[in-house]
Queue: 3 jobs
Job 1
Amino acid sequence: MKKTLVAMILVGGKGTRLKEITKDTAKPAVSFGAKYRLIDFTLSNLANSNVEVVGIVTQYEPYELMNYIGAGASWDLDNIDGGVRFLTPYASAENVMWQKGTAHAVRQYFNFVREFQSDYVLILSGDHIYKMDYQKMLAHHIGHQAVATVAAIEVDWEDPSRYGIIETDAKDRIVGFEEKPEHPKSTLASMGIYLFNTRDLERLLDGGPQDELVDFGKNVIPHAIRTGLAVSCYRFKDYWRDVGTVESLYAANMDMLNDPDFLGLNSSKNLPVYSKSLNLPPHVVLSSGSVKSSVIADGSVIDGSVVHSTISYRTVIMKNARVEDCVVLPDVFVSENAVLRHVIVNKGVIVPENYRLESEEPVVLDQSNLKELGEIDE
Amino acid sequence: MRSMNDLFMVVDATSKGNFAQLTRHRMPGALPFGAKYRLVDFTLSNCKNSGIKNVAIFPYGNYRSLADHIGSGERWDLSRRKDGIFILQPKNLNLTYEDAISFQRMYEHQEYFLRSTQEFVVVTSANLVWNIDFNVVLHDHLMKKADLTEVRDVDGKRLNTFILSRKTLLSYILDYDAINFRNMLEVFDYAPELVKNTYVFESACFMIENPKDLYDADMALLELDVKSQIFNPNRPVYSKETMSSPSRYGPDAEVKNAIVASGAVIEGVVYNSLIGRKAVVRKGATVLDSVVMNQCVIGEGAVVKGAVLDKETVVLPGAEIFGDADDLFITEKKQIVANDENLKVLQIAAECQPFVKTGGLADVVGALAVHYPGLGVRSHVMMPLYAKIKEKYQLFLENVCDQIVAYGGENYKTSLYRITDNGAVFHFVESYDFFDRPNLYGYADDGDRFAFFAKAAIGFFGALDEVPDIVHIHDWHPGLIPLLLKRDERYRNIKTILTVHNVEYQGVASSDVIRKLGVADYQITSPHVNFLESALYNAGRITTVSPTYRDELHYEYYAKNLIEAFLRRDRDFYGILNGLDAAIGPENDLTIRKRYDAQTAATGKRICKAHLQQTMGLFEGERRFVVGMVTRIAEQKGFDILLSAMDDIMALPEVEFVLLGTGDDRYVEGLRAFERKYPGRIRLNIGYDSANPNAIYAGADVFLMPSRFEPCGTGQMIALRYGTIPIVRQTGGLNDTVETFDAVAKRGNGFKFYNYDARDLVYQFQNAYNLFVHRKDDWDRLVENAMAVRFPVEASAKAYLRLYTTML
């Protein structure tokens, strides 16, 4: 079945900078904003952009992610002639095909692209929080007669060294691309979202030695620019965050908490964000409970005090416990009289009675580091 | 245990219940429950959790919202290649509500039952909230070697849930027209040859039949042990997947004992309440003891207490709603609740108690008028000044002003008088030419009289102390007022509402009256104008005097020539049950032999009964079964079937029959023949003043009303107050006030039969008789239940008031 556009989501590496949070979970399956997983945003964008074929390229702890996405029905991606495909490492006749980088992974699964004879390939990450209509990016790509288009966003001056920094000419053609430069020449950062003409992408990936064209940002895009191909820049102006670190995960949760209309999450109009229903009853606040300036997901029971925090599903907060400025991931149990401040509580943690952890900087509290981080008041 | 694949399920969603406005847009199964669910989610989840893969739903009436919710059934694993979920719609659109799904209804879809391959079937209801494994019930059914197992709760309440073999069920379905049972309830109660088994379900279970049940069950979820019995993590409740953010709390939120669904935004105070998906409680708003459904908005500073707010209700800033558990404030979907303080209501009618009365209409107008001030409403009434009123009330009538009204090229002088009583202001329109006559109606120029009245009444609006917000007209007499108001620049903002007390009286006159009124832009298309029809098309809202009569008026059998008008106004058409004056009853009745109340009913009724038998010349005896009727003797009142049933009724040896009434000679003759045939057992009192009706209400054992139709009916309400058990046909207000006695659950206050058919009448009559003769304890309980029913006028006044507020 021929399609105009297929998407490939690169789930990528181990996400070590998220510490214990990703110890047994692929980054896109990490919880965000009480009821979401990071992947919800990208999958919802695809559904809202009418992209019917999605390949999810994964190799690290894929179980939870696969389990969550299933056939993609929650995002209306369970199409008869397309839908969600998981592209996992496999053993070929010669060797096991571990992915070495983003471009390397795409090359490995190029059969997937060929199957749908698509004209364009959209390369995405699974751990970004944003709402984008990819059809608009495609229109830009076609309008600029580009071989490749890179989505980019203005970032703060202090930040640029974290990103791939883009230089453009007056017509938005990219003339310079530097990955994580020490002395950035602009504040226009690549969002890690790439759109290619399928034919040109195939030629690019086959054009050089495999070992050199491993990563889109590091190798493929700079190579294309160097060889004079038309690489265009699509400027994105709305909210976007790459959640790669503990700090950014915490900050993104606080963004959501502080903006009552964050990404219009409660509206079914204008690119709605879907997530999978977990068949949980609504949460309940009991007679000793108190909740202020917070968001709470289904299945939780609150009998303690919650201030300025995000509380994920199936969380229990017992009497006289106090949770402030925290990001609580799913299935957490906070026992009586526990006090938590500035903490990201990893999923499934049981916080003991009278436990106290009041941190200045956000820290990840895990079952494994309970004793190191906090103390139990006697 | 048997394999799970041995069960299929029939979901009875035919029950309409009595949900007032909550079911205007949906059937009960689709009612929102537990902040994020619909009632049917529980039944379907039980089905999924019991491994049942073949389900048929039989819906009542408007099932769009249910079909939309269920979709392909995939949320309950019911979107399947083999079997799956089937919504089997009624083939006969004239079906009315029943207690339970009938075999006739199943017969319409007999192929489904013939094709299903499972050996056993669960027949259950769509309005149950519980978490049950039907395989456990099946196991019990098999262990007990039963033919039929009924599931009940710990209190013995029937849950409309049965297990039986497909073969047995099929035999009832295929023979539905030959057997004596209409549904599973009747089979369980009366089929003699079956091995019957009762399975008692011991966990939390709620059967939702009215808004109070819904509210109570919702509130019960706030108790943790109930919640954990309904929401079992191993047997989750599945529902349609929706899109919303997590619940969000503002910095000033104050929440205790609340269930809050996702997408809800809480900025104000919420205590002991359920807040539905995407509902918003603004800063400074307070929600107490209430069920707030999806997407409601409670504005800043608003107060909501003891309420059930249907989806998308908007409570405007500062508005206040006060209900309580026994008198819930219920809104309709998308209702806007404004501050209704000092709402000005003008009722216009041809008669009003205590001034003049020929029918129940006058009671309703008068009762509402004096109850409104207590609800904060400025209450006004306007009616013609008949000679009778003028004579009797001359000393009290205060002249307000005079005006000249042009009608048909003539100028007529009219005057406005008023009397203030109990906080209500009664206005009287005087016209020498039209109303200064001995009778109220029955003149050749009635059309002109009431067309003139409409114009004169509007002419006096300017002379009232305040211009009304709502003009509430009753029956056909003021029927042209909405038409005239629509064309009156001055009164554009006035909202009009029509109450139809009986569709038989319509007011038909020559179209000349339209010309005489000087209505310029009116297309006269017929030589006649029908006052009621004009009001039906022009009033802002339509009501009638009971919810069931409202439903019945959707059928030509009841609505007759006005069927089109009623169907067209369906959206704005409501049924509000009349109340009964609190003063009526045996406690204060000085005209009966012995006053009594619920505690002293046994003695009181015995004395009154003996007295009745004595004065009427019936055979005396406590164990005789005295049947009373106080009625107009007319076709409407069911005399056709009564006369056919009389011999069967009198065949029961202890039956005695006493009737007070006046009317149609045709039936009077028939009745007289029976009086001669059964001397000392039948006594007729023909003529309205020939006996004291209260002596019958107090002294009879049962009160018979086999009406063909009955918009509301007061006889049965009075009888209930006197502990006299009504035997009625299931129509109109009779259906809304009488509940058939269930000997198992000890619920109910009377006996109802469904078909307008002598055989059905006799059948229910025999049930009543047998209970009286053989089950004294049950009968006493029945009398106790009957006397506990109230029908307060306040409830009816509040219902009207709430409807008014939806119009502003």
Job 2
Amino acid sequence: MQIVEFKDVSRIYKSGDHELKALDGVNFSLDEGKFVVILGPSGAGKSTLLNLLGGLDSPTSGKIIVEGKDISTLSNDELAEYRAAAVGFVFQFYNLVPTLTVRENVALVREIAKDSLSPEEMLAEVGLSDHLNNFPSELSGGEQQRVSIARALAKNPKILLCDEPTGALDSETGVLILKLLMSMAKGYGKTIVIVTHNQNIAKMADVVIRVKNGKIRSFDEQQSPMSADEVEW
Amino acid sequence: MLFRKLWRTMGLYKAQFISMVIMIALGIGIFVGFNMEWVSIDKNTNGFLEQTGFADYRIISENGFSKEDVESIASLTGIDKAARYLSVQADVKERDGDTISFTVTENADVSGFALMGGEPYDANSSDGIWLSDKYASANGISLGDALTFRYKNIEFKGNVKGLIKSGEHMVCVRDETQLMPDYKTHGFAYISPAMYKETAGFEYYPQINVLSKLEKKKFTDKVDKALDTTLMILTKDETVSYAGPQGEIDEGKTMGSILPVLFLLIAVLTMVTTMHRVAAKEKTQIGTLKALGFKDKRILRHYTSYAFMIGIMGTASGIALGYLVAWLVLNPNGMMATYIDIPDWKLYLPWFCVVILVLILALITLIGFLSVRQMLKGNAADALRPYIPKKMKRLLLEKTVIWKKLSFGAKWNLRDSMRHKSRTLMSLIGVVGCALIVVAALGMGDTMDSFLDMYYGDALHYNSRINLSEQVTTEKTNELIEKYEGDYSASVAVQVGEKAVSLDVYHTPGDFVRFPDENNNFIEIEDDGVYLCMRLAKEFDLSEGDTFRVSPYGSDKTYTLKVAGVIRSVSENMVISPEYADSIDLPYTINSIYTKTAKTDISSDDAVASVQSKQAIIDSFDSMMELMNLMILIFIIAAIVLGVVVLYNLGVMSYTERYREMATLKVVGFKDRKIGALLIGQNLWISLIGVIIGIPLGAAVLDYLMNALASEYEMKTVIDVSTYIVNILLTVGMSVLVSLLVARKNRKIDMVEALKGVE
């Protein structure tokens, strides 16, 4: 079942007379429950693509349809509602609230998402039951990223968006995080979109989208993706 | 190149820069303004008093002084100048109802005047009148006009030759019951001793005015010896023209002390926090400069000059603001200029203000220096690393059950407050300061109002006060008392210790005049003793049951009085009943009658010197209050500006510091309004706590101020409920308004940008 559709989406940044086409007439669609990797060099437009899908930004033209709803023309508040209900984010730098404990960082989403999951359960899933009352600064990078994953999943969104989730981690920890992401996604039936420039991650994907100069260069569906353990890191 | 960077840095931290300049300007402006006020009154009036030969001492004898008397006084060592002097209330024949302080001095160097227009004074002129310029302009009298003054049935007829101002009549009131000059109905005029002698046919001078630097005790001894009798001697302090401005100076000193210092303190404290934050945010830049090879000294100088620049701009605009504040009070068309009649008002910047300004400037520069030095610590690599706020620690509160019940927002805000303690504390101090000043300032108004209500509403029940002329007979007085069904009083000038005090005999069967005690309850004047006003009771340390001695001027008898109670009074006096006066054989002459009859229904009579309506007295007190109200208004406006600037500055700071957190919340799906509500929630709590702390502190400051003003007023400190309400609404409203302004910014949070980079 199709969950995401980009129809002729462009995002142009204007500064004075200068125009930067971050995305230029992008078309593609994704099915539910897939593990999607977006690859491309820096400045190719892959982050823009993710931001548009996550409702952090709106396209200059074109339509983005998520679960049958066009999100390209939503107002600020409607976008916030969309972010609260439909998507979960995992960032390179975790973006936890430093003044909230691990539990509170996850419980945060209860303020806004209607059918959120229990923070304790989610943290148990990512293996952080022992650190519920720690502050983010008391955790390692990998642990912080797990909190971030727990927070993203606690909202119980259909789609999980990850921007270089292993970018700030050493490769060993990175693999663990990727494994966690994959198993969580499979277990909860989430669609996962990961933006990265790490070719290896692409080997695990159901779908690999390569982006360059604001255009989609290739859209490959891999019939038998490797598991994380099979990939040489 | 670095200099160009300095300007850019200012532009970058525009909000901080402007708010620091405003705060320093405000602190200095209020401080300088209020201190400039009293120093300027002091210098202006003293300069004028000296210029016109204002007498240091007045020797008084109802029998008058001879030429020989004044010569023997003048020849005493330690006495610079002496002159026979007369100043009495005379009617102006051409202007019905007007009175003039009719003045003659034998030596124009003593108790003289300054010429504002017309011919110079001529001691031999036979028809010259030198008239108060304010009285002249209020009544359309010009040079050359003929005027006739009537005193003791003698008419002094002459032409206005000069328009003048005089130190002796600097506060030109008819008598002590008139608080504010009214030049429409009362002025003053000088004629020459030659004309006085010629017209009157005698030389009656009941006063010798003396310029002398001697102390009162020495002076009194010398004079008593020279004239071989004990006479009433009044010092400067016992004249309205000197004591009135002196009271304003004391009041100004009080107003210029605690509250303005508070402003300064808050400004400096906020400066500390803000400079620290600016330096912290500049840390990577500081590190870059260091890595590029700039020496620490150079970098320090660069950022210190930033602080110095703020200091210079703040101080300069503060001085300008100070002049404005002082000018508001002292401008030639203002109340002070109506009260005190001097040729011109100059504003003086007091030396201690200059010292404080220099110190503040140095302090601000030092604050900048220290903030940057902190960021420069270690090697270039350390300096390059961005400033990291303290790690989170668990709060004590988290161990309690309450914590679990708190909402997410409350937890977030509480932790944030604890993480950024200095910022929170400064916001709190800003709000406390604002609430404190508003309570103290409004409370001062409340106290005055309640006193006036009590005094003029409940204590004084007459409609008119009839002042009897000096020559009235006892029969005539009794006839008038009966005719107008009035209460009456007599004033006896007595000496208590070294001080001249008015001992008032009141007969009040009609309760037209009542006397409030310290708790504002009205008491009966019993026949067994004297009732002292609070100031005298305090000054002479007397309480109920004590006895003390007084001696009336012009008499060598002394009387022992027993204290029966203490009363609140507008003027400094003591009160007895006629029965008590009789029981100790104290002679007195009734000089005032209080009646329900309206002023317009009191027929003119030779025995009646003047009639005052109660309303006129209230009006003159009200105009006196206008000055106080102006000061209160300045304080409140300044408090609000201060609060807004402090809170806005800290709000912006908080916003920048929590930018990433807010961006994260936004990404997670929080709406702008909800994030705004969180921010406002924090400020609201800080404001509420601030108000709760500020109100009792304000009440304490008010108490302190009223105590400091106790030599001026005998008022019971009162704070109306409305003051509390206004204060809460004002302070909390201000805080909410500022938070709304800051919260509006969160719409502009760039989620994408904020999520890049390291925390």
Job 3
Amino acid sequence: MSRALSVYAAAALVFLHAPLVVLVLFSFNGGRFTVWEGFSLRWYQAAVSDPQLAEGLVNSLLIAVVAGVLSTVIGTLAAYGMWRRASPVLSGALYLSLVTPEIVTGVSLLALFQWAFRFLHLQLGLYTVVIAHVAFSIAYVTIVVSSRLRSYDRTLEEAAMDLGATEWGAFRRVTLPSIAPAVAAAGLLALVVSFDDYVITSLVAGVDSQTLPMVIYAMARRGVSPVVNAVSALIVVAFGAVIVVAERLQKR
Amino acid sequence: MEAVLELRAIAKEYTGHRAVDNVSLRLERGGFYCLLGPSGCGKTTTLRMVGGFEQPTSGEILLGGATVTGLRPWQRDVSTVFQNYALFPHLTALRNIEFGLRERRAADAREKALRALELVQLSAKRDSLPAQLSGGEKQRVALARSLVLEPQLLLLDEPLAALDPRLRKAMRAELKAMQRKTGITFLFVTHDQEEALSMSDKMAVMNKGRIEQFGTPEEVYLRPSTAFVAGFLGAINWFGKAGVRPEATRVAYTAPEGLPARRGTVESRLFLGNCIHVHARLAEGGQAICEVARDERQFTEGEEVWLHWHPADELRFE
């Protein structure tokens, strides 16, 4: 029985990750096509020296960091507020934003921006991407932090207030340190979903704010270039590291 | 004597339910007081209203002669030792004790905290986190954390409930000694009548949101004002309308002369270490318990006996 289970688990793993393995393998291929022509780092060199990819990476990182920080702050406070006073309406709205198809979120954000631009003389740019990312990351942050707060003992806050701390003081000096690992994990998650996003981003990005996924997508459209493989392999490694850190934090 | 705490007809109403109903109480400075009652009687709600965690629906709370009704917990000069201790898990024992002093910007916080640790004999554990402390040690840190602030009134919410029975008994004497040493007024909430009787200078017995009796342990045990109080504080045998405590109930093979007595059959005989409890079924119906000395070798199961008592030991209620 346990042997059958291990075989099954191995098969599931292969199914999940075989595409990644092929991708990483061919990123080291000397040739351009899916025929092995020997080990080479030329696609990595090409990827590193591509100015479009570099610009996309900088944009993506900038957006991910700013949106990650903002959504972590807003999402954590939202989770805290809903923990203090349960609100079925708010938590319902939160789950709704989580299950809304990305294309719907993207189109509705675009509609909102264009409506706002009628009053404000602005145009799509990096900041609209940041706003959009904050909007959809909040739900992720709130859900991670809420699940930690569910097991958090409310009397700790009462004890803090009893000892002279105001509500804000109790939150800052007792509750926040206790939930800090979950907040950090939520922040990393927000970072990843922001970096990862294509659909919403492509709708609300300006011409000068191409993110890395957008650049890669455009390249892939022009034909499978092994440069895409190399970039993707690097992203997988970087994200893997972030996920490991987030997991560790959440277990604390 | 000056009142440190005065409750004037406080009530707490939740939708369709009066948790605390018109409670008035006056505590004098420097005493050890207990609030005793079964779970759900409103004792914890009363304590939480004094601490400022709940607001009374009506009535007034005075602390040191000044009204504190409506003030938030951090604005009141009282401190609470919580049932689960509520130690801050990310802070060491010393840091936990310093917490309140730092919130109040006390000048010599570190020094005072160290002295408080010494008072509860935990100097060796100053750098331990709560997770590394035993139940009894956590309890002491919680106590020190509150005492170090020298509040007018210390509230203790069933602080011994989570300890094992042996430690619980040892902590009774320790708590009482601590109260005497610091001179701070203690208000101790418990559902354990033995705890209340052994520690209190005066105790209030609560039932269904009301205080049924407030008095010294002797008064409350020997002259309970209601049948509820009598029954809650210890076993009681009911002979018609008269209640008699097991230790005042005698058992004999012959009816004594000139004393009230009932016929019964011995059902069981329980050896309790320091005494023996003889359980008897009464001929008229019902049960009675008699406490007899350990060296009594008689009264075994099935024997016909007479239960009798002195009229002076009868407890009667309307």
